[in-house]
Amino acid sequence: MEENIFSQENEEPLNPEREEQLQVENELLKLKIQAQFGGMSGSSGDLPPEIENEFLKHVMAFEQQFNGEHKPVKMVSFLGNPVFRQPEGLGDREFKLESKKLTDLLYEKGISVDFLRDRDDRFQYKFITEELFEHESDFGVNLQGMMHCFIYEEFHPDHEMDIEDRTRDFMHAWLQRTTEYANHYLAKAFIQPNGKVCLLEQLTLRLQQLFDSYKAFENFDYKIFEIKFQLHPDQEPRGLGHAEGIVKYDAILENGERKSVEGPFKLYLVLEHDWWSIFYFVMEGF
Question: Measured between alpha carbons, how far is 147 from 2 in angstroms, rounded to an integer?
């Protein structure tokens, strides 16, 4: 189990003198961090003085290491240049032993590797030992309890899953009748069928006017039938894609009248700067 860097062995309340001493020390630490590193991107909030003290000390230690002189190194070097056998030549029992050795080593060195889509153990093992081991990173910053975190999809983007996520964001916002996070899933410019461009601010205003004309959306459901995309790697990471399916819900008017809505939807998306966003959509009820 990972150690909690904020855990306290002594849960007894501080005496007033010690509490005052810690508060003074905390203010000095804040001033020191401000002077040496330009302050902190965040706040320790209303933490008890002893917890805040430990937090500030970790911030100071992190900044000192982060700003120190060290070069990126390959993960395999950071791990001590271990040797792992290729998964293709291993039987189930042998692979289980090698996989456990790898898991234990990563845990010991404070490294976590996540896969957003389900991948089998041999796939994960192969990616880590053959590709991630060769990845250079800044392992010079290494504090007790600190984890170096890697995500497979940052190395190999899963565009289908990303488009599905944007579709889910869009549908959730529609159900909630809100445009608060529209810039998260909608593009800055909305291309209309006549070729005219509608800016995001104009589109969100039209959407909110529609949403405000109803009291609620109920019995909301949708199903994606198809997701397709095409990349244009010669123009940096760019591409076009779409998601289409069927949506149905009950729109409740202010007078309580219930209007059933059911029909196809289609979202058109563009990939820019490693992010898919919707630049046009067809949605039943809009």
Answer: 10
Q: Which amino acid is at 108?
A: E
Please compute Rg for the chain using Cα positions. Answer: 26
How do the residues of the chain divide into helix, strand and coil, expressed in percent and rounded to 5? 40, 25, 35
Helices 49-66, 16-37: crossing angle, 10 deg rounding: 20
What is the torsional sign of CA 13, 18, 24, 30?
negative
Do 217 and 251 contact (CB within 8 A), yes or no? yes
What residue has token string 């060769």?
Answer: 134
3-class DSSP assignment, residue 119: coil
Residue with tokens 């459901």: 221
The residues that bridge with 113 in the sheet, in sequence order, are: 150
Which has the closest alpha carbon to 139: 114, 116, 106, 115?
106
Nearest to 10 by CA among 46, 47, 51: 51
Full pLDDT tens readout for the chain, 286 residues:
344 433 344 455 667 777 777 777 777 767 766 666 565 545 555 677 777 766 666 666 555 555 555 578 899 999 999 999 999 989 999 999 999 999 999 999 989 999 999 999 999 999 999 999 999 987 655 556 668 889 999 999 999 999 999 999 999 999 999 999 999 999 999 887 777 888 999 999 999 999 999 999 999 999 999 999 999 877 666 899 999 999 999 999 988 899 999 999 999 999 988 899 999 999 988 8
Q: Which residues of 51-64 are buried (b: 16+ CB within 10 A; e: fewer)?
A: ebbbbbebbbeebe
Question: Which pair of tokens denotes residue 223?
Answer: 């199903």
C-beta separation of 264 from 244 below 8 A: yes
